[in-house]
Amino acid sequence: MTLSACALSPSPDDSAGAVTFLHLNDTYRIDAVEDGHRGGFGRVVTLIRQLRDEGRDVRLLHGGDFIYPSLESQLWDGEQMIEAMNFMHDLAPMYVVPGNHEFDNRDANVLEAVVAQSRFDWIGDNLRFATGNKVVDGRLRQSYVVEMGGMRVGFLSLTVHAEHGGNERDYAPVDIDYLAEAEQTLQDLERQGVDVVIGLTHLNLEQDRDIAALRATYPKLQIIAGGHEHEPEYEPGSPDRATIIKGASNARTIWRVDVRRDAAQGILVTASEIAIDDSIPSDLEYQRIADKWRESLLELIPYLEAKIGEAAVPLDARETAVRNEESNWGVFIADQMRPAFGEPQADLAFVNGGTLRIDDFIIGDITFEDVGRTFGFSSYLRHMTMSGADFRRLMEAGYRGAGPSKGYFPQISGYRICADRRRPEGQRVVSLQVPVADGWQEIEPDKDYTLVAPDYLYNGGDGYDFSAARNVSRPGSELKYLVVDGIVRAQAEGRAIGAVSDPNQPRIVILDGQRSECWPR
After folding, report:
1. Maximum distance among all alpha carbons in the chain?
2. Per its UniProt entry, which superkingdom is the organism in (predicted)?
3. Does residue 78 have a pLDDT over 60?
C-alpha cells in the first residue's frame, strides 16, 4: 500500500478501474470559517467537479457530526446541513457514519426527519436506528458493499459509545464492543467477496488504532477514515495495520483517497491531505444554497449582525486555540463565570473548549452572531464547593490523551495551571496555583474553594468526575447570556474586550519537548 500526506497534485492516469474518495468529518457549517478563508462545502464541490472533469469516479466519505451543534441547527435541527450534503451527494455519492452529535436531541423525531430528507447512504455496524419508523430505521446499512470502479468496496463503520463521548439514546443504541462488531463485519464482508475494506468511523483515535490492528487478520482492511477529532490525523499503515486518516473540522482540511486495481500488485490505496482555503474557489451553484440559508437566518434574527461590543485585539476563537491552549476569547468567557451566582464571586471557574464552537477569529466589532455561533447548544452553569485536592484531581481530565484539539481542554479563570500530558494519569497537573496578595501559591489541598462549571461537565461530560463536589446548586445562569451581558456592559463603559495573553504570566502552560519550566521565576 502506498500512502502519502501531501498537497493535492495530479495522479497518474488511472481513472479506469479506480475510484477517488474525498473524506471529510465534523462539519457544523454549510459555509466557510476563519472569516471565510478556510473550509466550506462550496470549495469541496469545486474539487468534486474538477475530479469529475478528469473522468474520475468520485465518491464522498463523511466521518460523522453534522446535524448539531450550530447556530442554524438550533433553529432548523440540521435541515440546512441535509440540503447542502444532498447537493454534494447528487454530484458524488456520499457514505456517512453517524457521529455523537447526530444524537444530541433527545427526541427521535429529529433523526427521523433528517434521515427522511437525506439522499445519501447512512452506514453503521455497531448501532441501529430504532425510531419506530420502519422506513427510516431501514435506511441504516450494515456490512455494506458497493460496486464502484470495477471493484467491490466494503465499508466497516463504527460510532462512539456514550462511555467514550457519545450519546445514549433509546432510538439509536450503540454497541461498545467495537472490536467484536468490527470482526463480525469484516467476516461478513469477506463472505461477500469484497476487494478492499474502508473503515469509516466516528471514534476516539485510540479506538481507531485498535481497529487498525485488525488488518493483521483481515488484510483487505486498508484504511480507516475517521472523525471525532477536529484536527488532521495521519498514521501510516503496514501489512499489520490499516492507515488512519482524519480531517480538520468544518472541512478546513480533507483527504483524497484513491483506490485502484493494479494488475501486478492488486488493490492499491493512496491518500493525500488537502488544505481547503482561498486557493480553491467556492462553487457558484452551491453558493446559492448557502446564501438562501443566510437570508433565512437574518429574517429570523434581524439583529444578528448588530454590534454589541468591540474587540481590543483579535479574539482567537478557532478550535485550534480553544481546544489546545490559552485563548483570549476563552479567557474572557471563563471570567464571566465566576460572578455568575452573585457575590462573593466564585474562586475558580472553567469551561471545556468543546463548548465554544465558532471556530473563527473575532476582529473589530463583536456581534450577536459571534456569541450565537460560539454557543452551539445550551450552556447552563452550576455553583459548588470542592477542596483544593479534589479540584486538582478533577483537572487531570483536562490534559489526558495525546494529539491536538481535544474538546475537554479547559479555558480557566481564578487560577493558573501547568500540565504535562506525558506523565501518568493522576500526575499530569504539575502545578495548580491560586492568586494571593503577593503573587501566587499552590492550591491548598485541605482548603475549600467555590467553583463554577458547566452543567454538562458536572453530569460527566468530557470525562470530568465531579463526585467530590458539595453544596451543588441547581443548573442556572446560562453562559451565553452572561457573555452578552459582559460585552454590553463593557461597551456602555467605553471599554473594548480582550487582551493579548501575557507570555510571561500565562494562565495555562503545557510542558513538552520545547518547554520544561512552568512559569518564569
Report:
1. 75
2. Bacteria
3. yes
Q: At which of 285, 315, 333 does a domain end? A: 285
Any domain includes 2: no
Give yes or no: residues 258 and 361 share one domain.
Answer: no
DSSP lists the bridge partners of residue 141 as 123
Average pLDDT over residues 477-490: 95
- Asked if residue 46 belongs to a domain, the reply is yes
Residues 518/512, Cβ–Cβ less than 8 Å: no
- Give the three-state DSSP class for 254: strand
pLDDT at 116: 98
What's the number of domains the chain is made of? 2
Print the domain residue range for 374.
304-510
* Confidence band for 387, pLDDT divided at 50, 70 and 90: very high
8 Å CB contact between 429 and 392: yes
Report the CATH number that the domain containing residue 447 is assigned in CATH. 3.90.780.10
The answer to whether 27 and 41 are in contact (CB under 8 A) is yes
Asked if 317 and 201 sit in the same domain, the reply is no
- Which triple of cell numbers denotes residue 367? 456581534
Radius of gyration, alpha carbons of the chain: 24
What gap in Å lies between CA 386 and CA 405, rounded to an integer? 28
Q: Which residues contact 346 (CB under 8 A, 6 or more apart)?
A: 337, 338, 339, 340, 383, 414, 450, 451, 452
Q: How many residues does the chain have?
A: 521
Alpha-carbon span 349 to 326, nearest angstrom: 14
Strand order in the sheet with 410-413: 381-387, 448-454, 348-352, 410-413
Residues 235 and 323 in one domain: no
CA–CA distance, 49 with 47 (Å, rounded to integer) = 5
Same domain for 268 and 341?
A: no
| pLDDT value at 401 more than 80 | no
Measured distance CA(493)–CA(485) in Å, rounded = 12
